[in-house]
Amino acid sequence: MKKILLPILFISSCFAAQAPAGYYSGAAGLTGYSLKSKLHDIISAKNVNWHYGDLNNYYNQTDLDRYYDHDATNTTFFLDIYSEIPTGADAYEYTSANIIGSAGAEGLGWNREHMMPQSTFYSNYPMYSDLFYVVPTDARINQLRSNYPYGIVGSTIYYTFTNSSRIGNCAIPGSAYTGRVYEPINEFKGDIARSLLYFAVRYEGKLGTFNFNNNANPASDTNPLDGTEERAYDPAYMAMLLQWHQQDPVSQREIDRNNAVYALQKNRNPFIDNPSWANAIWGQTPDTAAPQAPSNLTVTQNSAYFTTLSWAPGTSSDVIGYKIYQNGTLIASTKNSSITIDHLTSSTTYTFTVKAYDNGYLLSPDSNTVSATTLATDVYARDLFISKYLEGTVDNKALEITNKTGHPVNLNDYRLSIQLPSGSNYYFPAPYELEGIVQNNETFVVLNPNSNFSCYTIDQSRFVTAAPQMTYSGSQYLELRYKGTSVDALGTVGVNNSSVLGNVSLYRKTAVNQPSATFNISEWDAYASNYCQNLGTLSAGEVNLSGNDFRLYPNPVHDHIFVTGKIDHIQSAQILDFSGKLIYRESRPFRNKKSIPVQDIPAGSYLLKLDDKVYQFIKK
Questions:
Q1: What's the CATH architecture for 550-619?
Q2: How far apart are CA 115 and CA 158, in angstroms?
Q3: Half-sphere exposure of 601 toward its Cβ, with a 13 Å CA cutoff?
Q4: Half-sphere exposure of 567 (CA within 13 A, CB side)
Q5: 45 C-beta neighbours (distance < 10 Å), count
Q6: What digits encode the pLDDT tens for the residues 212-266?
Q7: pLDDT tens figures, 8-24
Q8: 136-171: per-residue pLDDT in tens?
Q9: What residues does each domain of the chain span?
Q10: What is the CATH number of domain 295-373?
Q11: What are phi and psi of 269, to 5 degrees?
Q12: Level-2 CATH architecture, domain 385-527
């Protein structure tokens, strides 16, 4: 018999009982794509990304069938949305032990299904193992679904499965696609829609780099992404997702799964917590008038490898972003009225124009044209570089990456790659992609989630992943890439690197401030395995750090930064930015407390000066 799945009413207050207090801070009152971007920032911060192989066991926490024909407190069977029969007994069921690679018929075993096909993101991490849309399903149905989109089936039916889900020709109203689609049963259409809406929010900033719908023949293009960062999906497909979301409300099963995944990944699906947000984002009706052109485009900073542009935004109220053209070619987009264009060649002249676009994706005319000639040389690093490498016992693996480029860097085109052995040969598995913005003079750490360092915690790191790139044993070649180009390297390609990278902590020497695609051990200081002092901070040569007397935590910091050590005698605490500007001052700061308030300071990197000693910290 079917158990009752309690619907959640579409009211904005419902998420308060599910999400931790303050989780969605800043989202209240926002609508449209501003809300989408805010939710992206929230659910993308401090995720824990697991290895694809870890999911097999985690499904025992996230996907047990406690809702239909099993004891809610004592079952080992998975809930498979492709084969579940809500009104009666299932034709077959699986436990975690029944995983298989492929199947010639239904009921033989299960495997991991990517609701958004992995071909969309080239099987790269962290997308590859995101529990919110990678679920256990019958292996045969998974195979037959292939990379076909979910959709509404028309008159031609190719397969009908035991729970009446089916594969047939596409009949999504208004869709140009005429190929095959997989239509789930009504019981799970909302579940699937909310998973795909989560994908559109979680990976905003990367959607345009994915394998989106850019086929010359839209009728045969299986991917419903449209290449935009804001709208994300083809309008006809989005209309279907919103309809499914509405007709199949959030169930208790989804609420429980959202909480279980949060416990593992430390992020949530906002459309389960607050279903009304879906329509608040995508329910807007765009106008038909193109926006005005941006004006007063100027070069505000010029260097050898980058230039910074700014402009006066147009007066159109529905502008959601700007497209930047370099020598007539589209190279970037931004929501702001300024941008830094990097990876330029020194002593080279470039021309730039900017166009605004609105929520209907209508483009403005060109702005004025500006020219910039990059300098022959400058004092900045050409690119990001790896500044610390830790290969400790068991899972104690960490990488620190530093930005000394002189400008903020968008990480969305950066990735970590590792070379693994395969018999006598070597290969590169799918990389781990970085994301977000790193400020100039800022470092960040990528950490294995199972690490247990004595002087650095999971909460302090910016990226936490068990992807292959962070399960190294010291013998592998590692590199930081920008798009397809190697930026900085650890080890040598095609050899066992354990003699230089095994059981060691390597810290880049202070005098080295440029990346190199060729590894040179003389650029590094070697320390004992598990050494992690000053991980996540700039080196002593870049700021005057003195880590022997005091310890600052947490770092990065939100509201208060605590200091331990012999602090009673400190006469003065000052916070300065990297230009030396005084931001905050306090006399006898530790007379009655052990912390410095930083909640009113803008996000960025700062120096905390305690009498004559200086420490770097990052304010989030």
A1: Sandwich (2.60)
A2: 20
A3: 28
A4: 21
A5: 12
A6: 766 678 899 999 999 999 999 999 999 999 999 999 999 999 999 999 999 999 9
A7: 333 333 443 479 999 99
A8: 999 999 999 999 999 999 999 999 999 999 999 999
A9: 12-282, 295-373, 385-527, 550-619
A10: 2.60.40.10
A11: -95, 110
A12: Sandwich (2.60)
Res. 87: pLDDT tops 90: yes
Tokens of 289: 């008038």
Dihedral, 263, 265, 267, 272 alpha carbons, nearest 10: -70
DSSP per residue over 451-506, as a string? ---SS--GGG-SEEE-SGGG---SSSEEEEEETTEEEEEES-TTS--HHHHSSEEE
Dist. CA 64–CA 77, nearest whole Å = 6
Strands (E), 171-272: 180-183
Contact 299, 375 (CB under 8 A): no
How far apart CA 551 and CA 549 sit, in angstroms, is 7
Q: How many CB atoms lie within 10 A of CB 217?
A: 9
What is the bridge-based pairing of β-strands 110-114 and 166-170?
Answer: unpaired
Q: What is the distance between the alpha carbons of residues 525 and 540, in angstroms, rounded to a whole number?
A: 13
Per-residue CA distances from 520 to 390, 403, 473 (Å):
16, 20, 19
Which segments of 354-495 does DSSP mark as H helices, in order?
Answer: none
Q: Look up tokens 């970590």; give the residue.
A: 416
547, pLDDT greater than 50 = no
The 10s digit of each residue's pLDDT in 392-448 is 999 999 999 999 999 999 999 999 999 999 999 999 999 999 999 999 999 999 999
pLDDT at 620: 79
Contact between 275 and 250 under an 8 Å Cβ cutoff? The reply is: yes
**Residues 440-499 pLDDT 10s:** 999 999 999 999 999 999 999 999 999 999 999 999 999 999 999 999 999 999 999 999
CA nearest 124: which of 213, 233, 209, 225? 209
